[in-house]
Amino acid sequence: MTELKSEFLNILFERGFFNQCTNLEGFDTYLYECEQKGEPAVGYLGSDPTGDSLHVGHIVPVMMMRWFQRCGHKPIALVGGATARIGDPSGKDKLRPFLSEETLQKNVEGLKKSFKTFLDFEHGSNAAIMVDNWEWFKDINYLAFLRDIGTCYSVNHMLTMESVKSRLEREQPMSFLEFNYQLLQGYDFCVLNQKYGCRAQIAGADQWGNITSGTELGRRRYNVELFGFTSPILTDSSGKKMGKSEGNAVWINDDKLSSYDYFQYFRNIGDSEVEKCLCIFTDLPMAEIKQLAKLQDKEINEAKKILAYEATKMCRGQEAADAALKTAVQTFEQGSLGSNLPTLSNIDLAKGLSVLDAFLKLGFVSSKGEARRLIKQGGLKINDQQIEDENRIISESDLIDGQIKLSQGKKKHGLIKA
Questions:
Q1: Global pTM value
Q2: What is the DSSP string of 235-253?
Q3: pLDDT by residue (tens digit) across 361-408?
Q4: Less packed terminus of the chain by CB within 10 Å, N or C?
Q5: What domains sit in the chain, N to C, each tagged with a CATH number?
């Protein structure tokens, strides 16, 4: 590989973000020329509002866009109000369930909140902008779209796309609706180019087919070279996608997950993931990260604390990070219960509360079935005593100093306060 000239791509490679690019040399030249002129390059990252928050797994391309902006370039955050009505078939075995208009709008607002956590939408000539592709799809003429856009696509080539090919290989049906998805995302790219001068799309590696759909449409229909580049799909040492904790997504928005639980997710990652996560989920300088990566054995826990603190500070703010760190130190190092542990308050224990409901309400399990499995495995405790009976009822007799401690394993604790 030739030496890179642009600041942005050098950062991506150094921090382990980069996966592949449609034309690396051409994209590097475009960025470098913009940087030399002091003019922002324009790139976009899209997300369909199938949920009301991004989670940790989505942060990787969002962080790429954050660095894009820090290098002086202009990010566009696209919320797919139109494409969410179809659903991206990538990695799916069946058609996504259709969402109501009310749910879609709620999800759009949630994604806007997630994006604003990492990108600056207010300051400077390269302030980020947010768009919704429903704006240009809601009134589109179907026949005109087929004539102007559909003629630029070969069904033969579309069948080779991973999202389509893998579904067919698994003998899972794909609707014509889903088959159209790559045309819509390709059209998004070209609309953003026409309206905002956008020439780059950032995404995770699973979006490669959809990205190249846009770059090809730009070349065939609009005679412009667009650039696509992707980040790797982040996995832990066992090969599992990062971003989920024991079946529950690690949400970005604070109304979906407490800052303490967000902190604990990073505090509890495996030793082998520490350096990778410091590079991707924090803004720390590489020199500091390399020093932290040298820590071994028990000292690696100090690096994990720094990772958890910096990741939480970026996502939830310094005050929330300080509180989460204080709670973690109190709970795990000082032997007391931190005041910011997940808590169920004002519970009428005179009526009783089942252990299954308690752990479900705290968010420690995603279902009562999961709670039952953990009880059989000896993984749930009340006041540090292992729960033997899945029908156990929590009552006033369990109160110690006005509260009850619930634990899942050694690292997840919560409180019930009467």
A1: 0.79
A2: B-TTSPBTTEETTEE-BSS
A3: 887 888 888 888 888 888 888 877 788 888 888 887 777 666 788 888
A4: N
A5: 7-231 (3.40.50.620), 258-332 (1.10.240.10), 343-417 (3.10.290.10)
